[in-house]
Specification:
Layout: H1 2-6, H2 8-23, H3 27-60, H4 65-114, H5 117-121, H6 125-167, H7 169-175, H8 179-216, H9 218-223, H10 227-280, H11 285-326, E1 345-353, E2 360-369, E3 374-379, H12 385-392, E4 403-405, E5 408-409, H13 415-419, E6 422-425, H14 436-440, H15 449-458, H16 462-466, H17 485-498, E7 503-507, H18 515-528, E8 533-537, H19 541-544, E9 549-554, E10 557-562, H20 564-570, H21 573-595
Parallel strand pairs: 3-8, 3-9, 6-7, 7-8
Antiparallel strand pairs: 1-2, 1-4, 4-5, 9-10
């Protein structure tokens, strides 16, 4: 912990530098805001002079109605001018901070899309949501309101001190005695504010993660009747968040009254010393009132320091958290080769271990997939089937010299060219909370409805969609909750075909579909999409038995490969699995026959 604290100031300066480099990208708006702010502050400095002149005239008996009316109209004009300039500094400065927020959010999201799959294997969704909302909002406040308040405080401090010195330099020095202690106080509490805000952000991240998880798994929670336990866990996370916010508020709540107390001490000194100066005749009553007004103007910047420091510390902490993520370099980078390859795959001696682990997922695997062929992959759960196809698509990076597409090492090719070959339907079907048509056309601009319908026909889901009350405009709900498992899988298959892939990967994507529908889908794909290379991962032999090549994995090793007939002759794992599934089908048929 000591080391972390020791690094704090360096991190703050770096983060603040990054923060201001971003807002200076909008320097025209920033300059316009500063000019408008100077207009507001300059007009504000005129008000005490108007009151000084009016009060001195009244005290000397030289005032008349014309002077009173003139002074009154002057104050109204100044108020209108301040309102005019205040509108524009808010438009310029706050607008710049909002644009910074937009740019930072877009940059953050774009960077997240470049990070490899293994980053998301170890990063919680709640953490990312906290960064994308709370942290970016904190940066916006630091770049906007804190920036303008800092400049305002500096300008008003200098201008107010000058005006005070012009009235009475001795009285100025005496009344300002408590004010330097405000700076010392704020400096002392600044680090504590930073550290405690870091704790608040971590607690908020934990609460966000738990809330997101509970909402996503609400049906499982209800099914198991575990509402009370989940409520307790969420309450603990919320309690932690409240506790950390209260710890932060204690520091802030303790500092702010001290700042105000020191500021009020200056007013007390003015009443005692300045009052005697008026009685003694060294300053006029109008000067005393003007002095009091300028001292109040000087008090505001001193009080604003605490607020500004709080915002800047929060912004620096949040900027630091965002920088840690945006400084992560994508582990999977583009290669120099950018030509459009043929969908021919060759794997040579592929072994793979997930980063940060010791267990080897795949071991010395070699095979060839010719273009326009169909390959089936079977094996026990956990045998490495999904990992294998994710390496082929470079969702994870294979070792150099192990995976080749069209004769060139996959690591030497551009990512978009490699991934552009594939249409992928993963095990866990994910649909967006959009219409069915939008889900099928996802990732493709302006796909005609007729094409959408044709793709649905290929996936054997068109007639069912037509049976819905709104047809293809039916909203599927979050994660496609309104559809059955088989319907979601077939819509996902149609979506994968919409990108016109050269290689279609179905990762156990027909498991929720009956064998007849499965056969119909595979026949249509074979008949209507010429030249398509198919990679079918399945548990059912019926899915892969007509493939040109079948790969059998077991504990990360390629134990058998060949056609369906060749593998049956070997009388190995594949043939054992085939006989077992045939037996299960016979039992099911007899059971169904008995029920009838």
């Amino acid at each position: 912990m000591a080391g972390a604290k020791g690094r704090g100031p360096k991190l703050d300066r770096s983060s603040l530098k990054n923060l201001y480099s971003r807002i200076f990208r909008h320097k025209k708006a920033l300059l316009g805001g500063v000019v408008a702010l100077i207009g507001v502050d300059g007009l504000q400095l005129l008000v005490p002079q108007i009151f000084r002149k009016l009060i001195d005239s009244l005290a000397q008996g030289t005032a008349d109605s014309a002077l009173v009316w003139r002074m009154g109209f002057s104050i109204v004009a100044i108020a209108l001018g301040m309102a005019f300039f205040r509108f524009f500094w808010r438009i310029f400065i706050v607008g710049a901070s909002r644009r910074l927020e937009r740019d930072l959010r877009a940059e953050f999201y774009s960077h997240l899309q470049k990070l490899p799959a293994q980053y998301y294997d170890k990063t919680k969704v709640g953490d990312l949501m906290a960064h994308a909302t709370n942290d970016i909002n904190a940066v916006r406040m630091a770049a906007g309101m804190a920036t303008i308040a800092s400049f305002d405080a500096l300008f008003m401090s200098v201008a107010s001190v000058i005006m005070l010195l012009l009235i009475d330099w001795r009285l100025t020095l005496i009344t300002m005695i408590p004010l330097p202690f405000i700076t010392l106080l704020v400096t002392r509490f600044g680090r504590m504010l930073h550290d405690r805000f870091e704790s608040v952000q971590k607690a908020f991240s934990g609460l966000t993660e738990k809330t997101q998880e509970s909402f996503s798994g609400i049906r499982v929670i209800k099914a198991y009747g575990d509402e009370q336990s989940e409520r307790k866990l969420l309450s603990e996370k919320a309690g932690k968040c409240v506790h950390e916010n209260i710890r932060l508020t204690r520091i802030w709540g303790f500092m702010q009254p001290l700042v105000m107390g020191l500021a009020m001490m200056s007013s007390s000194i003015l009443l005692m010393v300045g009052g005697r100066a008026v009685i003694g005749g060294s300053i006029s009553l109008g000067q005393f009132v003007a002095f009091s007004s300028y001292l109040a103007m000087l008090t505001w910047p001193m009080m604003a320091i605490g607020w500004v420091v709080n915002l800047l510390q929060r912004g620096a902490a949040s900027m630091g958290r965002l920088e840690k993520i945006m400084n992560i370099k994508p582990a999977i980078a583009d290669g120099p080769v950018s030509d459009q390859p043929e969908p021919a795959i060759e794997v040579k001696g592929l072994s793979y271990t997930y980063p940060g682990t010791d267990a080897e997922v795949l071991s010395d695997i070699s095979f060839t997939i010719p273009a326009s062929s169909t390959v089936g992959i079977v094996g026990r759960t956990g045998s490495g089937k999904t990992t294998l196809v994710e390496l082929l698509m470079r969702l994870y990076d294979p070792p150099a010299g192990t995976v080749f597409i069209d004769g060139i090492d996959i690591r030497q090719r551009e990512l978009k060219e490699v991934r552009g070959l594939f249409g992928y339907v993963p095990q866990e079907t994910f649909l967006f909370a959009l219409s069915i048509a939008d889900n099928i056309s996802f990732g493709v601009d302006s796909l005609p409805l007729e094409t959408v319908k044709h793709l649905a026909e290929l996936a054997e889901i068109h007639s069912e969609i037509e049976g819905f009350s709104r047809g293809y405009e039916t909203m599927v709900g979050e994660r496609g909750i309104t559809l059955s498992g088989g319907q979601k899988q077939r819509i996902a298959i149609a979506r994968s075909l919409a990108v016109s892939p050269s290689i279609l990967v179905l990762d156990d994507s027909l498991s929720a579909i009956d064998t007849e529908t499965e056969s119909a889908i595979l026949e249509k794909l074979k008949a209507e999409i010429s030249g398509l290379t198919n990679i079918l991962i399945a548990h059912r032999i019926s899915t892969v038995q007509h493939a040109d090549l079948i790969l059998v994995l077991d504990h990360g090793k390629l134990v058998e490969k060949g056609t369906h007939a060749e593998l049956l002759k070997k009388n190995g794992y594949y043939s054992e699995l085939y006989r077992m599934q045939q037996l299960e089908e016979e039992v099911e048929k007899r059971t169904e026959g008995g029920d009838r």
